[in-house]
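Checklist before submission:
- one chain only
- standard amino acids only
- sequence pasted in full

Submission:
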Amino acid sequence: MASESGLPTMEEHIAHHLTNLTFGLHPEKGMSFATTSTEAAEMGFWAIHVDSMLWSIALGLLFVLTFRAAAKKVTAGVPGGWQNFVEMLMDFVNDNVRGSFKHKNDMVAPLALTIFVWIFLLNLMDLVPVDLIPHIAYLLGIPYFKIVPTTDINVTAGLALGVFILIIYYSLKIKGPVGFIKELTGIPFQTNIVYIKPFFWVINFVLEFINLLAKPASLALRLFGNLYAAEMIFILIGVMYSAGLIMGLAGGVLHVGWAIFHILVVPLQAFIFMVLTVVYLDMAYSEDH
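Returned file contents:
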């Protein structure tokens, strides 16, 4: 319910900030954009979060184009500032890949760099003032417009799914279908008793299959949980300030303090996602896993 002043209540304000710009099939309206959080929920699983898609693609293009510009202007002499930064970042990623991936694959380092920079840019949007861009979008007639893609479980799950596909692909490529099945059924329980082996195969498969699924789930949920919680705190600070629960300088201190702390979270979560991806791919290559 709206307040007596006609302004949204605290619950409505929070719900508005946590609702994506959703396009999908509504049971009554057909294909359309959702204009309320209820309509967005009614569109179900196959609805598209347009804002998450837009920001993910835009920031991905920003990464590709800026790094391509550095590559085109590369020089053997004294590098410029941007080239120097890109080279330092590539050395940082390469060092981490060499420390975690013990096999030969020229794809892993570029993949790690892409994951780190792309997720860093997605996370960085959480430092933009929480009401700024959504309010501008609202004035333009767009009812909802979230700007942090990694607070959308669909985005983090999509990133994790891509990693999971690579894990399965390299497990099958390196070990073969038979070797991969043996890996899933041969550990951790083993026995030489013939009539007990099938029982152990079933137990091993259940345990290893759960362990396999836990890899993308941990990637998706860790990234989503940290960024979603951070966004919630920014929203709550803003709501408390607007409601007069915190006043003047106190509100600014809370915002700045949490933003400074969050500056550490933004690269850390991108780094963790990158490192775990490399580690999981290394495990996919390992014959003794």
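Reviewer check: The chain has a mean pLDDT of 86.
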